[in-house]
Specification:
With 449 residues, this protein is α+β, with helices and mostly antiparallel strands. It is built from twelve helices and 15 strands. Helix 4 links the parallel strand 5 and strand 6. The protein is globular and about 60 Å long.
């Protein structure tokens, strides 16, 4: 029995980021990949009953509403919509037994089920009972439905409901997305075009070739998979990283230190391949939510920053961290993320296939060297989930080809972790070992300014 979905809109606009992610999803599927499906994984100490989780989920109007949404486009060149399908099936909760001895890496690399935006639900929950008596909770969702922060807000919502807290329907969606009238797209159109041109000119310049790329010349193999490697750091190692950040005067731009270390690690792989230095371009998600706001859960409330490091500047860790920090501050000052968000909104009426081709056009598909994200503290302050201690939190995001690699930094309870998501064949095992060694060395060793 599911809760009634009262007080929730029947349809919403896609954000520009939702549609941009759908274009990336199309590229992934055309290249043989499973699609743009993300996972948030919670490792819990103790056994979590599926019945208890299903009871909490079934009584949440917010979760049932999100699970009922699917994407539609009534006419060509008409902005797509999220629309409820009238179903009351709710958010699925599956139960599976984990294999004895299966670690995170093996389980994370197993094939995903089919999740698409044109058919609800676009997300599901899975409980994996492990032989040691612990439980792994996996939230899988199509990335167009929500971003990483939205997924964490969703998990918090389940915890709040289980604890008897109020529903978070007020932060389930962005009210601006409910403006779906035929004239809403054209409101303030000339001013929006002028504002969007500012970032478009900047990004066109940033994406100019040549760019270093892991992309396979023949493209990914048919039915290629994502592979994941998880790097865990102890509390002591995390403390050493923080000391590095202070030494480099990067306390307010910690992510730029992580990004610089990642660029240098990948450059070590390129050097082993005997490739001459090439410029590096890395898009980084930028949260557009107001600081301290607990939501919205639904839709991608993000834009992007774009970081370019020229071939001749691929040098010391300190210099690169400072350069990336300066680029970040300049883009924020110029409101580049807001401007690019406007560009993505203006592109929503374009047919998806045309839009996907346009994204690849300026650099023949090599629009990034790799994707990067620094999530920060994951589920900060949430020590338990439905009464069980949360031992570990892991974010898994797919990597398309190109660029073939996504690097995700996150932290939980004072311990840093790094997820390497890559397209099968882009890095072999010795190259992955080299990347990990180079990354650890920069993150943990004395930095040379």
């Amino acid at each position: 029995m599911t809760a009634r979905m009262s007080g929730f809109p029947h349809q919403l606009q896609l954000t520009g980021a939702d549609y941009f992610i759908l274009a990336l999803d199309r590229q992934m599927r055309q290249g043989g990949m499973p699609g743009n499906v993300c996972r948030l994984v919670l490792d819990l100490d103790g056994a979590l009953e599926a019945k208890a989780l299903r009871a909490v989920v079934a009584q949440s109007e917010t979760l049932n509403w999100i699970a009922s949404l699917r994407m539609i486009r009534w006419l060509p060149f008409m902005s797509p919509r999220w629309r409820t399908n009238g179903a009351r099936g709710g958010l699925p909760v599956a139960l599976r037994a984990g294999e004895a001895g299966a670690g995170g890496r093996e389980e994370f690399n197993r094939p995903l089920g089919e999740i698409r935006t044109g058919k609800a639900p676009g997300l599901n929950l899975e409980l994996i009972g492990r032989p040691d008596g612990s439980t792994r909770l996996v939230l899988a969702w199509h990335h167009a439905l929500m971003d990483v922060r939205g997924a964490e807000f969703l998990v918090r919502h389940i915890q709040d409901r289980a604890a008897g807290g109020a529903a978070v329907g007020t932060v389930a969606f962005n009210p601006d997305q409910t403006r779906t009238g035929p004239l809403d797209f054209w409101r303030g159109f000339p001013a929006r075009v002028r504002f969007g041109r500012e970032s478009l000119a900047f990004i066109t310049q940033a994406c100019r070739p040549p760019l270093a790329s892991l992309a396979l010349a023949q493209g990914p193999p048919a039915a290629a998979r994502n592979q994941f490697r998880i790097l865990r750091f102890s509390a002591e190692e995390t403390r050493r990283m923080d000391e590095q950040v202070v030494r480099l005067n990067a306390s307010f731009r910690r992510g730029m230190f992580y990004l610089a270390a990642s660029i240098r690690a990948l450059n070590a792989v390129f050097r082993r391949r005997g490739r001459p230095p090439e410029s590096v371009l890395v898009p980084v998600p930028h949260d557009l939510r107001k600081r301290g706001m607990a939501g919205p859960i639904f839709s991608n409330q993000v834009s992007f920053l774009f970081f370019r490091v020229e071939a001749e500047a691929l040098g010391g860790l300190g210099e690169m961290t400072a350069d990336l920090g300066a680029q970040m501050m300049e883009q924020i000052r110029r409101r580049t993320p807001e401007s690019f968000a406007t560009v993505m909104e203006l592109f929503r009426p374009l047919p998806l296939g045309f839009y996907a081709r346009r994204i690849k056009q300026p650099t023949q598909g090599r629009f990034a060297t790799f994707f990067f994200s620094d999530i920060g503290e994951s589920l900060a302050g949430m020590e338990t989930f439905l009464g069980l201690p949360v031992r570990e939190v892991t974010h898994l995001a797919p990597a398309g080809g190109p660029p073939g690699l996504t690097v995700i930094f996150s932290r939980h309870r004072g311990r840093q972790s790094v997820v390497l998501s890559l397209v099968e064949g882009c890095l072999d095992e010795p190259e992955l070992e080299l990347f990990e060694q180079a990354l650890r060395r920069d993150l943990l060793s004395e930095a040379k300014a």
